[in-house]
Amino acid sequence: MNDLKRSDFEVNRLGKATLLSPIFKNYAEEAPDKEFIDDSRRIIFDASIEAYNANKESSEDPISFLKAGARKEIYFDPSKTKAAIVTCGGLCPGINNVIRGLVNGLYYRYKVRNIWGIQYGYQGFIPEYGHEMIKLSPDVVKDIHLFGGTILGSSRGRQDISAMVDALERENINILFTIGGDGTLAGNHVINEEIKRRGLKIVTAGIPKTIDNDVNFMTKTFGFDTAFTTAAAVVRDAHNEATGAYNGVAIVKLMGRDSGFIAANAALAMPDVNFVLVPESKFDLHGEKGFLAALKSRVVDRHHALVVVAEGAGQHLFDEGDEVKDKSGNVKHKDIGVFLKDEIGKFFTGEGIEATVKYIDPSYIIRSEVAIPADSVFCNDLALNAVHGAMAGLTDFVVGRWHNQFTYLPIPVATASRKKIDVDGSLWWSVLETTGQPINMTNEKK
Amino acid sequence: MNDLKRSDFEVNRLGKATLLSPIFKNYAEEAPDKEFIDDSRRIIFDASIEAYNANKESSEDPISFLKAGARKEIYFDPSKTKAAIVTCGGLCPGINNVIRGLVNGLYYRYKVRNIWGIQYGYQGFIPEYGHEMIKLSPDVVKDIHLFGGTILGSSRGRQDISAMVDALERENINILFTIGGDGTLAGNHVINEEIKRRGLKIVTAGIPKTIDNDVNFMTKTFGFDTAFTTAAAVVRDAHNEATGAYNGVAIVKLMGRDSGFIAANAALAMPDVNFVLVPESKFDLHGEKGFLAALKSRVVDRHHALVVVAEGAGQHLFDEGDEVKDKSGNVKHKDIGVFLKDEIGKFFTGEGIEATVKYIDPSYIIRSEVAIPADSVFCNDLALNAVHGAMAGLTDFVVGRWHNQFTYLPIPVATASRKKIDVDGSLWWSVLETTGQPINMTNEKK
Amino acid sequence: MNDLKRSDFEVNRLGKATLLSPIFKNYAEEAPDKEFIDDSRRIIFDASIEAYNANKESSEDPISFLKAGARKEIYFDPSKTKAAIVTCGGLCPGINNVIRGLVNGLYYRYKVRNIWGIQYGYQGFIPEYGHEMIKLSPDVVKDIHLFGGTILGSSRGRQDISAMVDALERENINILFTIGGDGTLAGNHVINEEIKRRGLKIVTAGIPKTIDNDVNFMTKTFGFDTAFTTAAAVVRDAHNEATGAYNGVAIVKLMGRDSGFIAANAALAMPDVNFVLVPESKFDLHGEKGFLAALKSRVVDRHHALVVVAEGAGQHLFDEGDEVKDKSGNVKHKDIGVFLKDEIGKFFTGEGIEATVKYIDPSYIIRSEVAIPADSVFCNDLALNAVHGAMAGLTDFVVGRWHNQFTYLPIPVATASRKKIDVDGSLWWSVLETTGQPINMTNEKK
Amino acid sequence: MNDLKRSDFEVNRLGKATLLSPIFKNYAEEAPDKEFIDDSRRIIFDASIEAYNANKESSEDPISFLKAGARKEIYFDPSKTKAAIVTCGGLCPGINNVIRGLVNGLYYRYKVRNIWGIQYGYQGFIPEYGHEMIKLSPDVVKDIHLFGGTILGSSRGRQDISAMVDALERENINILFTIGGDGTLAGNHVINEEIKRRGLKIVTAGIPKTIDNDVNFMTKTFGFDTAFTTAAAVVRDAHNEATGAYNGVAIVKLMGRDSGFIAANAALAMPDVNFVLVPESKFDLHGEKGFLAALKSRVVDRHHALVVVAEGAGQHLFDEGDEVKDKSGNVKHKDIGVFLKDEIGKFFTGEGIEATVKYIDPSYIIRSEVAIPADSVFCNDLALNAVHGAMAGLTDFVVGRWHNQFTYLPIPVATASRKKIDVDGSLWWSVLETTGQPINMTNEKK
After folding, report:
1. Same domain? C197 vs C274
2. Which parts of the sequence bind ATP (chains A, B, C, D) (predicted)?
3. Minimum mean pLDDT among A362-376, B283-297, C330-344, D367-381: which range?
4. How many domains are there within chain C?
């Protein structure tokens, strides 16, 4: 549980919600039984009977997440509300779907008419860049869910917080929706601190964008399903390349900076893969039990092999001391794909085995893809729930999903640590059994 | 909760599991921390804090589901175990994936070598039909996940229970995996009763197959994601047809006998739809507030309209008294799609409006589709968990998923009632807002 | 050769082209070697050495088609030219691509700025309907090639010719591009006659739209590749349905009013098909050598069968005397698909064979599909060549392709008769061998 | 015309065909009008009326190609014929389709039962490699057209010719079908010389495999349509990446060693591309009129740019003197994609412009793809015609298509030179107009 306390899971609000929601007014007569959610509704983190029984003794409530959804009372007067949307960091399938969902949710459900897109990420707040804000409406976003990418453009890295809040003030923005990753959301939190310091009536809401699916307390993040769907097709292509040559070895590098969810799921969906290498499971390259020995054994036996590697895997194989960070503050990984390709080539040459090594890096192709329908529905729901929370006056929060219900989490909780594959759990277990790879590819004894 | 008692959720077992699982033996040294599940592990049905607090007073445990997964001890000796797989009812994306998962799970995880496919559903048990059993192995099922349909063939309807159990006895089958819908699983339960009566050492395990996603106590059934993915593409085609003609009205009929999940999700994924008609929300055809009046208003205003209708919607519009059932015992619905097409045509003619009505029924195209990667992974997990349960000696159960964990449910619980869209909940709410259709299309006052 | 004379292949022009083309001016300096086409360039119809030798004796030139392409001199002054585009008849993949190609060709290559879309087919010319013309520009058509359907809408049937030419006059339109089928193009020809009669300076150019690929003197029409691509996927689905049931018979009805090109090519691309029924090859239903007997033999032998039928096949099986035409003047065919489904069902029941018959009609799904890239490139080329011809003052012509070169044909030539499958040629031969169906399914002796 | 003489276009035969074809016998009664082709049937190379008129004076026949198709008489007795198939060089969509077509054509049309696959290219003939031959039959190849790659495996480079012919002799192979590129076919020709020298009764037939579509005297080679279809999707992804960043520049490297057909067609199919760089059109990097200046102008103006580069483009930009060849004898190109990425990055930095450069190399993903239906039908036809030619005793030939008819060409003619884009013709013209790129990106005056 990452040393988090129960109280860390409380979402802040700007103030009491006192206005009747247009949704409620709209439906009051025709659908009096429509469900509205209030702040007492929460979803328990651990739904196991063991946790239940353990907790029963305790006087405290179990850890739980605020349930997302439309509130009967809202904080902002729609006719006076100005909302802005910003997209940051690398591309991820579904960004346009989220933008569309936010715009339509604000416009049709709350009658907010003053909606703006900030261009090119946090840069868009900084006058020096000269990026104009774009007026958004249902007409503008009508068909954007049919395209990958982001209509607003994006950029990496934070900008000066004070300048950003100046921009919010100057533009009279009441609600800022941020679609971005870890670094972006952490930035959002700092923006919020500054807002608080200045006593402004501005809320910030985040929709976590991480194609790696590595946000804690969230079953899934948007774009992930599309990502491993696209990756699975590439894995099949790589299988054709591997079997197309005698002693053919195909390597596919997939996204996954700190966790191997895409790699694992793509391999399960297209189970021709023989090795999945992920950050969560350390491996040696050389030595009797190392990866290369296992690979050789496979190639000698079957004359082809298919390797899927997450970009964050095997980082310990590189020399230390020269860590580099990108503009978003992420540690820039050495390219494990290219490294493996070279090492495998050298290894087989050294072993006197004629092997053909092929390397595929489909990252840009995956992240710029159109969201599949399952993601499309999910993005829309995330966006609507972000709108509900923001209109109700909640702030410094992200929207998540847990136990198939949408939730609101404080940003610091969502960014405190990252979700990883449990190498003793059933997902990794399935990977091991599907690939047939050794459980342990290190030379240390467990 | 459908009047179910806590005790109804207990899964039966054939006997105590006393043999050490090959999985455990296989991993004991290399992965001593691997997680094994025992029968005390359960998932609480209602994970809300409200339910938690309400329950706290009570002396009883809350309703919960047995957690699925590999057990350390198993019931059947793999070297002596004979397993059979049967697929029943209509096609659904993912059947081949489930078959593949069962075969590979039995073969690689438990070293069961004696695996057979029953051809053409329950017919395959009846000697008169002359359908041979097919020997299954990883080689046979290697690439079948890349194809829709079922390699075993299927049929509708039950066969004589006694003759079926005779077949199980005659063939010395220990484990019967049934991939089928409501009627099939109910059949499975009756088979189980007969097995018990005869005192045989046979377990039956079900993997619920309903493209409609309407099984209670299960977040999702396999094939559903693929179904609405395929449906969404057809909905877009229909949009092109609707806008391609002046006053063009396109109608897409989708699966959904008792519930409109496919229709609702397809409409949310491809939000060009103007009307979603589902079994859960009654509508009148005629009258001031009826569907045709709303449709006319849309067509006059925008000159095209797109209607998605679930096959079970509007059944009250047909004359009663002539209910027909198909061989599976399902009530055969009148064809609401053709009916609507005719009624809409007549209506516009009557109104003096020249409209072009186009009707699309993509059912066979949807249900015979290849599983998308998300379904592929899901099918594999369902199959593996079915294998774990059956090898452990559990019987008369189905595999499900709840709160993102796999579960085992007694068949009678899973088939007692059907999951439906809550018309006061957030899914239907999203549909109403996305389509802009009237909340209430009946002439009665609510 | 359909009794056409050499002189029938001469394309009319409105007058001599005397203005220097902007393309020539634009490229004169940088690309002096660019190829421009003049009216002496023609493509020979029959490129066989036999025809060559036969012709050598003759004093006449062989039959040939005017070569399409940019002319150095043009007829219309771009700055004063007004062009209009109209789309008629049923949907076909690629219509939007053609519209885009026309607009961009006029705009970028010839600097024509005055381009309009006529809405809803020929109706758009008739004031009573009240359809506004739409101003078109590269911005408007930017992304439309990514969508199926037609952004202009369509309608069937001719309107009053005089009223249509009135509209052309009233709006000062100089060039009318018509995207439509047989009936539409014939209409275009009549419009042209009226234009000539009135002595107007208006040219008409057609881009033949027939998903059936049945235009004479043209290797291929746009949308056809996409059509059989989509059809092939449905054929595979049908294969899954056929094999999914014992004695499963799946029937797919595909487009093909007078010719079976889509059916034949879909069956060759997805060669699981057992019977292809097309208009060009008559068959009996009953009798020793009839289709049903052949089908029974297949089903008894293999327990499943897959039938692909073109919509115009087997029309002789219906009672005559009640021919109906649609608004475009096409004979409305009885539904051979539904008919076959019923007849097959009755037949097997009569034979005491329990068969499951499934019927799929994917027509709307196919014709509303997005053009595949091969079609996309083709549509663009067709459009550009239509623009080149029209700007050069050619009139009453359609754009075609022959021997992999683009051509201009007089409309009467292109609509005089229809292209059909030669049942003694290699395409039908391939179909017979791929399906294994009897050559002759009539009871007459050949 | 590459200095080829008329006589170069004569295809060799092993001897007179004297046996009645099983196809003829099979169809004689039921289809007496079926068309059979004899060696007098030829297709004229140049079907223009200009060439016709020029030739009329001459006493010689025009250059023409032998028409492919089933002959009434064949050379080999099917019951005694042994055929072998080998696939060489890099992957290309459709190889499995060709294999399937060959096997089914031999088996069903000619009743040849003795069909073998050579594994891993020409290596498969060399005993030292130990690759077993694989027995092929319709059952083995039933579903392989649904997969990319090659079921036979492949390798690059020639093997010892004498050893290869030894293998043909040793195995009593009568017909060798080779699916491969330039180098492979040239190898095939040399094998044929050796066969002639030894006086063996063996024919060799080639099916040209070049994803680049660069074979002379052939409109299209198999796999090309699939290649640019797949490439077009990646181009769209790259567009999303380019627009997703401020001053985003995306580069897609596509196949095209000596010709830019894939690059050109992908850009036309997905016309978001701003620059297409191909081997046929030289460009400077630097200087006032160089590519980088043009790119800068685009980026400054629109803030994003999309570049498609064929792998063989810009080779003059690399230092000479260190030419390297791969095992197939192809000159190994320096990686123009990586080079451009680096140069563009340096250039913008030097110009003080913050640009984001993204580089995509989808080659393996494209070449391992499943053939699209249009390719599927084409592959099947190529294969059947190869079978017809070989059974008739033709040798040292490849199958092609010209003027939409299948042809047979002597291998030396097909490999004498390569097809290239005519930079003064309509394809390149379309590319220039679609992209808006300068006609001339060199600093020399034209």
Report:
1. no
2. 90, 156-157, 181-184
3. C330-344
4. 2
CATH number assigned to the domain comprising residue D287? 3.40.50.460
Same-domain status, A121 and A160: yes
Do C173 and C274 fall into the same domain?
Answer: no
Tell me, yes or no, whether D46 and D188 share the same domain: yes
Residue where the block lists tokens 């077009």:
D232
Q: CA angle at residue A195 from A190 to A197, to 5 degrees?
A: 95
> What's the pLDDT tens digit per position in D159-191?
999 999 999 999 999 999 999 998 999 999 999
C367-422 pLDDT, tens digit per residue, is 999 999 999 999 999 999 999 999 999 999 999 999 999 999 999 999 998 999 99
The bridge status of strand C134-136 relative to strand C114-118 is antiparallel
pLDDT, mean of residues B309-319: 92
B238–C368: do the CB atoms touch at under 8 Å? yes
Say if residue C73 is in the same domain as residue C202. Answer: yes
**φ, ψ for residue B401 (rounded to 5)?**
-135, 135
Q: How many CB atoms lie within 10 A of CB B379?
A: 28
For tokens 């040239």, name the residue.
Answer: D186
Give dist(CA B244, CA C364) in Å, integer: 11
Binding-site positions of B read 90, 156-157, 181-184, 210-212, 255-257, 311, 364-367
CA angle C357, C358, C362 (to 5 degrees): 150
Residues 419-438 of B with CB under 8 A from A: 422-426, 429-430, 433-434, 436, 438
Question: How many C-beta atoms surround the C-beta of residue A233 within 10 A?
Answer: 18
User: What would the pLDDT profile of C257-298 be if each residue is shown by its tens digit?
Assistant: 999 999 999 999 999 999 999 999 999 999 999 999 999 999
Is D71 annotated as ligand-binding? no
Give the tens place of pLDDT for each residue, D26-45: 888 888 889 999 999 999 99
Nearest to B235 by CA among B259, B204, B197, B271: B271
Range of the domain at C239: 224-367+423-435
Task: Give the pTM.
Answer: 0.96
The per-residue pLDDT for range B323-375, each reduced to its tens digit, is 666 666 666 667 999 999 999 999 999 999 999 999 999 999 999 999 999 99
Q: What is the DSSP letter of D305?
A: E
Q: Is C214 a catalytic residue?
A: no
Q: Are residues B215 and B228 in the same domain?
A: no
SS3 for B16? coil
Q: What is the pLDDT of residue B5?
A: 87
Q: B34: which chain A residues are within 8 Å (Cβ-Cβ)?
A: 424, 429
| Mean pLDDT of chain C, nearest integer | 94
Residue D2: per-residue pLDDT: 58
This model of the complex carries an ipTM of 0.94
Helix%, strand%, coil% for chain C, nearest 5: 40, 20, 40
| Residue D446: inside a domain | no
Q: Is B56 close to A56, i.e. CB distance below 8 A? A: yes
For chain C, say whether D303 makes contact (Cβ under 8 Å): no
Q: Is the dihedral of CA D226, D229, D235, D236 positive or negative?
A: negative
CB A396, CB A204: distance < 8 Å: yes
C-beta of residue A434 within 8 angstroms of C-beta of residue A20: no
Buried b (16+ CB within 10 A) or exposed e, C407-433: bbbbbebbbebbbebebeebbbbbbbb
